[in-house]
Write a structure and sequence with these properties.
The protein is built from 12 helices and 12 strands. It is an alpha/beta fold and 344 residues long.
């Protein structure tokens, strides 16, 4: 095995001091552009690879961030991670990804893992099971840079990047109304999560804005899953006056509704309309293709990473970020076969 190339080797080849080589590789302002280029070219020739551990010990930075997602099964979160990873890589950062599987216990374990790895900051989307936020409060007390994405808790005063859930839900519900559906239901998500709460509010306000009555029995409390969607659809169809359309809190729930409707021989969209939220990969490949609200996932990932970098710089005294900083992205609606309107 060949010996590892060090900055001493580069210094010897160029007849420079190791301090000059180190500064050149770290883009120090006191080193001329010519010397930097000379050192970087020689580093490439010798196939020099930086010792990240040694570098992190000297600088106090690991150039690694931790990312917590609730579920890898949802393309939504995979797409957000894609945005995070691309932006992190272009900024010289790596990520450690941890899946909470929608549980508080794994969420806490993720944080312990990240702290052991001395990450420079954490990006997190809250698990639907989490109602005790002590572990996030502890991160704030320890001044660990933290940003929430998609799922947040406003009481914690943590900077966040979200979609405009309220507007997305309002527009989705209004779309069903404009396409002739008269009795529109909603399969909700856990209401302690702000985004799901906002989607319920958007649904209700769209009904009121269009002179429709809010019918409490048309609101089913689900838990964000395919099974929850099937159970909700079964419940709706057994009502005395069942709804003729559903706005589902997310696409796996919507898929569950579609499966149940097919089993009960209900025609979609002629007799029943449906629209989801998240614009998952499967939406356009199922029959009927599912209408949905896109959450600009890749952009969400990029914005979340950039906001975290601002906080890391703020901790170094190079910037300032307010605790209540919130970046809100616009929803984009995709209308497909599942909501095209009632038959005459």
């Amino acid at each position: 095995m060949s010996q590892r190339i060090t900055i001493h080797d580069i210094a010897r080849e160029l007849n420079l001091t190791t301090a000059t080589v180190s500064r050149a590789l770290n883009d120090h302002p006191r080193i001329s552009t010519e010397t930097k280029q000379l050192v970087q070219e020689k580093a490439r020739q010798l196939k020099y690879r930086r010792n990240k551990l040694a570098s992190s010990l000297r600088s106090g930075k690991s150039h690694t961030i931790g990312v917590i997602i609730p579920s890898a099964q949802m393309n939504f979160f995979g797409s957000v991670v894609h945005g995070i990873e691309n932006t992190a890589s272009s900024n010289g950062y790596s990520i450690i990804l941890y899946q909470s599987e929608e549980t508080t216990s794994l969420e806490k374990k993720a944080i312990e893992t990240f702290l052991s790895a001395r990450v420079d900051g954490i990006l997190a989307s809250i698990a639907k099971e989490t109602v005790d936020y002590t572990h996030y409060v502890e991160l704030r007390k320890r001044n660990i840079p933290l940003v929430f994405f998609d799922r947040t808790n406003e009481e914690l005063q943590v900077p966040s990047v979200v979609i405009d859930d309220y507007r997305g839900a309002f527009l989705a519900t209004e779309h069903l109304i404009k396409n002739g559906y008269a009795r529109i239901a909603h399969v909700a998500g856990p209401q302690h999560i702000k985004g799901f709460r906002d989607r319920l509010s958007g649904y209700k306000d769209a009904l009121l804005a269009n002179n429709r009555t809010i019918v409490n029995e048309y609101i089913y409390q689900g838990n964000v899953s395919l099974e929850s969607g099937k159970e909700a659809a079964d419940y709706f169809l057994n009502l005395t006056a069942p709804p003729d359309a559903v706005f589902a809190v997310e696409d796996f729930t919507a898929l569950g509704v579609i499966k149940c409707m097919k089993e009960r021989n209900v025609k979609i969209p002629e007799d029943f309309g449906i629209i989801g939220f998240a614009n998952e990969n499967f939406d356009e490949h199922i029959t009927p293709a599912l209408s949905s609200v896109d959450q600009q996932t890749v952009q969400m990932g990029k914005e979340a990473f950039n906001l975290l970098m601002e906080i890391i710089k703020a901790n170094d005294g190079k910037a300032r970020v307010k605790d209540d900083t919130k970046i809100v992205l616009d929803p984009v609606l995709f209308f497909r076969e599942s909501s095209t309107g009632k038959s005459n």
